Amino acid sequence: MDKILIIDDNPAVLQSLSLLFELHDYQVVEASTPFEAEQVVRYQRIDLVIQDMNFSADTTSGEEGKALFFKLRAINPCLPIILLTAWTELEMAISLVKAGAADYLAKPWDDEKLLVSVANLIALGKASEDSKQLQRQEQERAQFNEGAQLCGLIYKSVAMQRAVEMAVQVAKSDVAVLVTGANGSGKEKVAEIIQANSRLANKPFIKVNAGALPDNLIEAELFGAEAGAYTGANKQRIGRFEAADGGTLFLDEIGNLPLSGQMKLLRVLQTGEFERLGSVETRKVNVRVISATNAQLLNDIAAGRFREDLYYRLNVIEIQLPNLSQRVDDILPLVQHFLPTRVLTLSAEKSLCAHSWPGNVRELENACKRAGVLKPTGELDAADFGLTTIAAKSAPPVQGREPSKQELQQAMRQCEGVIAKVARQFGMSRQALYRRLQKYGIEY
Known about the structure:
Layout: E1 3-7, H1 11-23, E2 27-31, H2 34-43, E3 48-52, H3 63-75, E4 81-85, H4 90-98, E5 103-106, H5 111-146, H6 158-171, E6 177-180, H7 187-196, E7 205-209, H8 215-223, H9 240-243, E8 248-252, H10 259-271, E9 273-275, E10 282-284, E11 288-293, H11 297-302, H12 308-314, E12 317-320, H13 331-338, H14 346-354, H15 360-374, H16 387-393, H17 405-414, H18 419-426, H19 430-440
Parallel strand pairs: 1-2, 1-3, 3-4, 4-5, 6-11, 6-12, 7-8, 8-11
Antiparallel strand pairs: 9-10
């Protein structure tokens, strides 16, 4: 929500302007002295300032306003400032416009003209800032990508860029890495990036999903087994640690490893030594371990399901992957990757970006496959992705119920940040909504 600072020593002016802008869904901050105004600009995110030119009784020179203007510009050179002037300060206001003021309006002002000027200046500022930010991000990403192996990862968001940069950085060492995140968020892809950018890039890279194996086979899968070690073991079996010797082993869904397997895993991480099932011969390997989980391992430790000493062995460095709903900028690039020759309607783009994607990238990929099969030609609309069904499952919460952080984030996206609309959706006042947004750290 756009935030406007109004600076005037006249309470009637502050009240009148505040009411005007709040009715048009702006957030208003008031200041009656230059000192208060400086503090607000210094410590709050302000999108536009409307300031008077005089703040002391019987003063009409405009010198106070001029001094304040330059102080605010020193704090934030890009901040749009509209000057409210009386006829005596008109010449000075014009000189300040030449010095960088966004506009000036004479008192009494015209509401419509003021609203148009404010809307245009805020939109212009956002476009300029977005353009500069995108340009900086693209330059940084291009420089980063030149020297990094990204293993086909598709992303555009700042959140994912940070995770990738961390993965490439830790790849240069041999420390154990724990990749955490929800199912389908890209944990295996990050493990591939770590391995591809490490000094072990040309060495074995072995993957094992601990969550896909029965408990009685996990140890044999990791450490191997001699013939006859268990029912059905008709021949000697080489374990994944032996296969990965000299390279990297990726252990997915590590939280599903039984306690007996955890004890053996801890030993091999500490000493590099293990025995195959059914054997007393100690073997030694040199393996870098990257593990991943969607579980809350600290909760499992508290419940006695996961060894604390193993957790700290695996988690020398943790890379947390955000859910797809937390990196909306990645959605359309991913769709373009999954459907490279297809065109989306604007409705489809908005629906795809508004959906919460509880299954993350895997769910998005499946939705794209569905759309491509059911409608092989022509523009793709939201219904082609099955989003009408999805929307029904994630309908807005019933009014009066306390919304979750995820519901608030989704509503803010759907309503394009208009506080009044979001508040109506949840059946609460704007002040109550502000408190919840601040509570969850949601920017508005």
